[in-house]
Structures are given as structure tokens and as C-alpha cells.
């Protein structure tokens, strides 16, 4: 009796492929989209098992034509476990938001609207649990100088636990669970813990995620403002001015005047991993500072002038924003959306400023 040899097809590396194209090929051959994406994003990984040799050869040939690196084996492969990363994007040039969204959509096998929504929904996570080569491939696919890609090893990262529910029963259970894991609950505020390990974050999400009362966020994706509150005893003003110039880039003559006009923002867009060192440096120079988390803030825009009112009105209508006599304030929106909206309005000659901040 003739025995037909079955083959196993693996994705070795994402190579130069765009997952959207590779998924289209695999789907055309009858492979599930989600399974194919997972195999690509987490390569090296098994794509399909126990297929006839001719189908395995056809599949690998087509996938390699679109840039994937693949392998056919007689036995199910065993791959060494490698780190997986969560990926967030932070726009550095809001005017390029739609170009970034187009590139992300092409890469992720989704439409541009969904890609844009992922970018503007804090904290901007666009891919979860993917390999380092996948992160590198996405970086290469993005427009130059348009967005910062932040790749965080999910098992090495630390996580914050945010309580955003109204049930006191759930809150009580959550406080006990945090304490049982060995963490000191931070108090009655929304921030319950700020240094969770991966396993503990997973355990808490497994228990409380379905309640809709918590949010667990990778600290690597958080951004802060540093506010100057005033002077501290000790150093003289020249040292304070020098710190404001060196750390925040404020011209020394301006810094000297600003010392008497606190509170104000010294720095924006400070990542968590560098926050403690910068706060310590300001403190050592005799400055009283505080950090404010901005990742989940909602922002309004004040439109105070327009060089071309008709173009501004058209842009506002396209953005579904109110049109009226200037000055006008927009409804609150997430911070990244506000930055994109501001850039869009400035492109048609509007004078736009950030208004009040509201915590989301």
C-alpha cells in the first residue's frame, strides 16, 4: 500500500513581505486569515500541518514570491521560544497621520479607517504579541520621520492597573486581589498599581477584564508632562535656569522670567522609562516639579483665527466639527486625534491652540 508523505509548512521570518499580501495568498488557498496572520507575526512558527507535498510546495512558492521566508519539513518543527512584543505608534508629525495610517493598513491587512482608529485610541497599540522582525518590518514600512514605533517585550515590561468602574464591590475585590499578589494598592484613585509584572497583569485581567472596570496598560506606552510648580530650597536661580535650559531646551533668558510664573509645562511627551531620571534632575537643581499622565487625556481645541474662512468652514464640516463665528472651541477629543485635527486645520490657514485638558 502506497503511503503519501504529509508535510508541515512553517513561516521562518516575515522577511520583506507585507502581511496583507501574504494573507490574501494564503486565503486564496483556503487557509484561515487569523491563523495565517498569527504565524506571520510570530515567526518562526508553524503555519499548516499534514498537507500533501504538492500543496506544501505550491504554498511556500507563492508565499516566498510575496517576500515571506518559509520552510517545509517532514516532522512538526520545534521552535525556540523567542520574545514577543506589543507595538504602539506615536505620531511625531501629525500632518502625516493619514500616510502613516495607509502604511499601517497595508501592513496589517485592515482598512485605513481601522488603522487610524488604532493609532488615535490611547495608548496607540497597533500590534500585539509579535516578533522582533515583525516590528522591524513595520518600522521599515512607515513613512520617514512621521511616527515613533515603540516595541515592548511583553514579559519584560511592567504594567499599570487603572480602575475605571463604579461598582464598589468590584473595587473591593480588586484591592484584595492586588494585595494578595504582593502589591500595595495605591489608594482610592483610579491608579491601583503601577509596577505589575506580566504574569500578575495577566491574572488580574483574566479575573476582572470581563467586568469592564479595569484597564491594564504597558508602562512603555505611557507619556507624561513635567510641570514646574515652583522653587525648592537650596540651589540659586542660575542653577535652576541652567537645568531648565539643559533639560527642557528653554532659552536661559526666557527660563529666568518663567521662574516667577509657575505652574507651567516644562516638557511634554516624556516616556515613562525616562521620567524618574528627569524628575530627579530637576529636583536636584532646586525646582519643584510634578508629572502628569497625558496618555488618556481628552483635549479641546480653540480656533481663534482663519486666513481663509471658507476653507476652514469646509474643513470643519469634513471633520464633523461645529462651524461658527470665531473664536470657537471644539468638543473634547483624545490627545492624538486633537493633534491630527490641529494639523489639518492649520493646513487651511487656521490659528489653533490646545484648550483645557480633561482626563478621559
State the secondary-structure class. alpha+beta
Beta-strand residue percentage: 25-35%
Number of strands: 16
Q: How would you describe the shape?
A: globular
Largest sheet: 4 strands, antiparallel
Span between termini: 68 Å
How big is the Rg?
Answer: 25 Å
Helicity range of the residues?
25-40%
> How many distinct helices?
13
Poorly predicted parts: none
Give the integer mean of the pLDDT values.
90
Order of helices and strands: EHHEHEEHHEHEEHEHEEHHEHEEHEEHE
List keywords for this structure.
360 residues, alpha+beta, 3-stranded antiparallel sheet, 16 strands, 39% helix, globular
Explain what this protein looks like in three dimensions.
The chain is of the alpha+beta class. Helix 9 crosses helix 10. The strands form five sheets. Strands 13, 14, 15 and 16 form a four-stranded antiparallel beta sheet that branches. The model has no long low-confidence stretch (mean pLDDT 90). It is built from 13 helices and 16 strands. The longest helix is centred in the N-terminal third of the chain and has 13 residues.
Compact summary:
This protein has 360 residues and is α+β, with helices and mostly antiparallel strands. The protein has helices spanning 19-28, 33-41, 53-65, 97-108, 112-120, 132-141, 168-180, 198-208, 237-248, 252-258, 272-284, 309-318, 335-346, and strands spanning 6-13, 45-52, 69-73, 85-91, 125-130, 147-153, 159-163, 191-196, 214-218, 223-231, 264-271, 287-293, 297-306, 328-329, 333-334, 350-359.
